[in-house]
Amino acid sequence: MPDYGHEIQLGTFLTPSAADPRRVVALAQASEDAGLDLVTFQDHPYQPRFLDTWTLLTWVAAATARVTLAGNVLNLPLRQPAVLAKAAASLDLLSGGRVALGLGAGAFWDAIEAMGAPRLSPGDAVTALDEAIAVIRGLWDDDERGVLSAGGRFHAVHGAKRGPAPAHDVPIWVGAYKPRMLELVGRTADGWLPSLGYLQIADAAAANARIDEAALAAGRDPGEILRLLNVGSGTFSASSSGFLQGPPEQWVDDLLPLVLDEGFSTFVLGSDDETTITRFGEEVAPALREAVAQARRESGTTTGTVRPAASLAARTPGLDYDAVPDELRGRAVEPGDRAYRDVRSTYVWPGSPALVLRPADAEQVGAAVRYARTQDVPLAVRSGGHGLAGRATNDGGIVVALEALSGIEVLDESRRLVRIGAGARWGDVAAALSPRGWAISSGDMGDVGVGGLVTAGGQGLLGRAHGLTLDHVVGAEVVLADGSVVRATPDKHADLLWAVRGAGSHVGVVTSVDIEAAPVGDVVFVVVVQDASEPERLMTRWARHVEAAPRDLTSFLTFAPARATQPAVAYSMSVWADDDTEAAVAAIEPILTLAPVLQQQAQLVPYAAVVPAAHARHSAQATPAFRGGLVEHVTDRVAQVLGGLVRHGLADMTQLRAVGGAVNDVPADATAYAHRTQAFSLLATSSSGRSATIDGHWGALRDDITGVYRSFDAAPDRLALVYPPATLARLRTIAATYDPDGVFGRDLPLA
């Protein structure tokens, strides 16, 4: 048989002995420490001398950090598949995607029957396994609408609710030897897991051929199916005395033909000896990988990870998936992968990227950028994916997702200086800083990502008291267009730091920022829902009051139009930026008189309670239409235009944000965000079908809008409003230095 080119992996097959439970856990940890990839356990529920395998898997998952865990193989007749699906998904979620599901049709039927399961004929056992796989996969697929009805005579569900979905595509490996079982592997399994002893090497070629034929008949590429092999026990010694009986180099010589001639790529050693396990991981594994790599180089064998059929079918022609850098390959997500639904879209924008790369650090971000430059597809960068501008996903391109870069580190207690990864969520930042009595003004939603907000501006609920988020950034780590990593500070790459604060996506990928927090303890947080049947009057009165209020008051006012029997309503979110409740009441209470109050809530809470991070799944369904603008004041004309959107139900949301006060203390040329005179930020959103209508109304504000917040309006015709002439000229010069080929900022080109 030819070499399938799969990645070489090695693991252990441990005995789940109940006599010394701690020892089997220690052997699993030793397997991980030795660098092995996989830890598996026998599953014989009827064996009184053994621990329950699933309980053991769960315990070992908590005691390890890296290895994949599996039953080898789970006794399906004694494990109800619907419950097994939930157990596997749960453990995969809890372990961070480290579960594989090894399944067997059943053996030792006297013992199985003694445990209460019905005896099945060999043919029925195969049918039952086939049905079970359909049930398990169907219940994992919670992206499908509705409930699941699947299975057949032996394992059936009727209207079962799907979920939870596992953290990754949990592979299903099947132990198989007979023709019908081998055909099942080819049709539906992700891997074949036989054991030497039950399988003779002389029979491997015929078994692989049968699997491949069944795969092709089912429309699958045989290369999708991983070939694993339990190789039994072995002994290290100075001289050779048989298969895996000798020095490490002989072990390599014994295993190498099984890769090159028989197609196996994962070897699982049945040993409960810690020294043998350690030598297998530390000496045999690297030598075998190198020997295989050398042989593959000489033969020109194509290598890569095992891809499911759905992924292979959905690949974008022209994108070189095999060229993805090695350090990114294990965390890359393609269409068809289970994780794809969680990374394809943003909170607002639906996306269908061809590839999502999830780097673990700035150097890997650099590798992602260098790779993306070689591919003729769009490039997007995502920190949290909450923004309106649509920069964080695309269709048919590459997305570099920064969620792994989420560290929060205090650099200087006296300065309240904090280094925050671009992939962190602001709600998590607020929670981390709250015990110190610190806060950073950061929008109005805790799920917003650090990178997107801090490079665009950061209009937040502490804004009038403490300014924009970016106003307190004093340093940034940036990956440039050539993939190099630099740190921009006032003393080094000062021009880059200037650009990062307001136009960061034009000059690179910001991977972390150094930012000075403000001393903020508890704040007064008030939410008021009011009748909006006279939206114009409410807007003008609210704006007049907020603009005249002390700076400690920041308020956002949002309108929802009338729908069916529901009247139009407005809800305001207001924060008084300290714990002086008397002053807060004096400043906020007048808002209650502006329109009839339908609901109100006031709390004295830490700022972290204002912006909690829900870490919700982004699953946008429709492309939005939206417009934004900055105005000096809410004039009668501004109120009339916005009120018309509310009255006629033309916008799903119409919002006014107070952005004066401390925001306007900063000189206009201090950052690439140059809008330092306006008191309010406006936003209207609707469905894409109303884009022309929204634009028509927005045109009536041309004399009032003196600037645009890029996150709220990235249309190309807004360039001059996003960046005033002097800012734009300076930004073009900086971008030409750091990104001469225009890799970044394509959503709003500077040209």
Question: Which architecture of the largest domain does the CATH hierarchy give at level 2?
Answer: Alpha-Beta Barrel
Q: Based on the structure, what is the oligomeric state of the protein chains? A: single chain
Strand order of the largest sheet: 3-2-1-13-10-9-8-5-4
Quickly count the domains: 3
Specify the biggest β-sheet.
9 strands, parallel
Shape summary: elongated
CATH superfamily of the largest domain: Luciferase-like domain
Structural class: alpha/beta
Q: Would you tell me the overall average pLDDT?
A: 93
Explained architecture:
Helices cover 33% and strands 20% of the residues. The protein is an alpha/beta fold and 751 residues long. It has three domains: 9-299, Luciferase-like domain (TIM Barrel), CATH 3.20.20.30; 309-401, 2-Layer Sandwich (Uridine Diphospho-n-acetylenolpyruvylglucosamine Reductase, domain 2), CATH 3.30.43.10; 523-728, Vanillyl-alcohol Oxidase, Chain A, domain 3. The chain has a nine-stranded parallel sheet, covered by helices on one side. The chain has an eight-stranded antiparallel sheet with strand order 27-24-26-25-29-30-28-31. Strands 17-18-22-20-21 form a five-stranded antiparallel sheet. Helix 3 crosses helix 5 and helix 6 packs across helix 7. The longest helix is centred in the middle third of the chain and has 26 residues, at 274-299. The radius of gyration is 30 Å and the shape is elongated. Its cofactor is FAD. It comes from Cellulomonas composti.
Concise structural overview:
InterPro entries: FAD-bd_PCMH (IPR016166), FAD-bd_PCMH-like_sf (IPR036318), FAD-bd_PCMH_sub1 (IPR016167), FAD-bd_PCMH_sub2 (IPR016169), FAD-linked_Oxidoreductase (IPR050416), Luciferase-like_dom (IPR011251), Luciferase-like_sf (IPR036661), Oxid_FAD_bind_N (IPR006094). Helices cover 33% and strands 20% of the residues. The protein has 751 residues and is an alpha/beta fold.
